[in-house]
# Entry
Amino acid sequence: MTTSTQLAGGSSGHEHLRPLIDTALDGFAKGTIERNGPLPARGPGADGLHSGAGGFPEGSCPETGVGSARALTEMSRWFSQHAIDPADPACAAHLHTPPLAVAVAADTVAGAVNSSLDSWDQGPSGVAIEAEVVRAMTSLIGYSPETATGAMTSGGTESNLTGLMLAREHAGRAANDAAVRGRPRILCSADAHFSVARSAGVLGLGEDAAVEVGLDSRRRMDPDSLRRALDAVDGDGDVPIAVVATAGTTDLGTIDPLAEIAAITEARGLWLHVDAAYGGGAVFSRRLAPLLDGLERADSVAIDLHKLGWQPVAAGLFCVRDATLFEPLQRRVAYLNAEDDEQAGYRSLLGRSLRTTRRADAFKVAVTLRALGRAGLGALVDRCHDLARHAASRVRGTPRLALHSDPALTTVVFRYLPRSGDPDSVNARLRRRLMDEGRAVVGRTEFAGAVQLKLTLLNPNTTEADIDALLDAVVAAGDKECA
Ligand SMILES: Cc1ncc(COP(=O)(O)O)c(C=O)c1O
# Structure
């Protein structure tokens, strides 16, 4: 048996894996040291980034392979050397978390075991562990453990699509003939994630089925505007099928007033989906969890543990208040979940997802929850929130910077104030300068058409001094752009 045909499982799997993991880690370590910072310098023109794996003398798919050890060392080194490292304190652009080592180690085991959750006979322990994770998370949401359930997803995008698909089916069944009554509509704020409108498109409703609800002065969904928007939809003869509230908008981390919105949806018998992809991790924090009051009244919830949960991608979670709401996804498939097998206790999770094959992403989450506990994860959330507050006060105290608003969770939106030149162009260019120099990865967004910079702080090991240095680098880059 050559090293290339050794398998990861079986009684010798661990013996095959151990040296290969060491080899891969050596390459990873070398590449990380060679990169020497949050990203490779010179942006898209960085050495080797164009050629990629094709830059190796044998090409990307040689006729004769180079062997596991060489492929792993060379390519792990290249991959990490040219990567962006979310564990570097100067990498603060996106909801792109630095994963915990314990979660990555657990994920390696999940890869080796290679369960699939769509049928019991591809992963009994995976099926059981996902149920455990769902139980733990639904109870943190505040759902009743007797009725609630859920499933791991690839992330907020898939969770939002799943929630809206179930909402559409639910509304269709309730109305019995929704098509005749009018066009289905989904109500969300202007700051809702773009995947909400895209889900409407994927569902065949058209992206313009997403109706924008007005914001209050803190850019939260305004309940009075929601009432008016619902009345207008009714007045047009259209059919509201769901309200999507956001708990943690992508840029500002704003949390819509969930309890007030729930009161409106409950009174009108409407589906409430809460996109808590970002802010849902606040359930771990005693300090921030009260911001999510009302989450337990939602019909469905999206939470991404690859954001405020420190998991490697993918670790999305989609939960419903009542397991019966999953009914439209149930399928009886002869080769996966025969009725008599299920009656005999061989239960699958096929009916919990739009996917068929589904890896045991819950395993790394289960290990992390047990290793750190709620309080351990809550401390990480609180630390990142503290860092955001520090960054905001530092921005406030820096004459060349202007804060957009106080941070709600762990993001800080601000802009550089140039002495001369077009502020939008200077902010955009200073961000690229920081990347080209290999110094920092700062986020970019826009409000009212004005370019803003953003720090998304998800690294609990970042220090206040790191934040100060990052903001100093922003100012220095801005000054150079104006020189
Ligand atoms: C509020 C919100 N919802 C949904 C998503 C999409 O999540 P994912 O990229 O995991 O699909 C994001 C991503 O940043 C988000 O911020």
Observations:
- Residues 95, 155-157, 193, 195, 246, 248-250, 275, 277-278, 304, 316 surround pyridoxal-5'-phosphate (CB under 6 Å).
- The longest strand covers residues 239-246.
- Residues 109-371 form a domain with the Aspartate Aminotransferase; domain 2 fold (CATH 3.40.640.10).
- The chain has 13 helices and twelve strands.
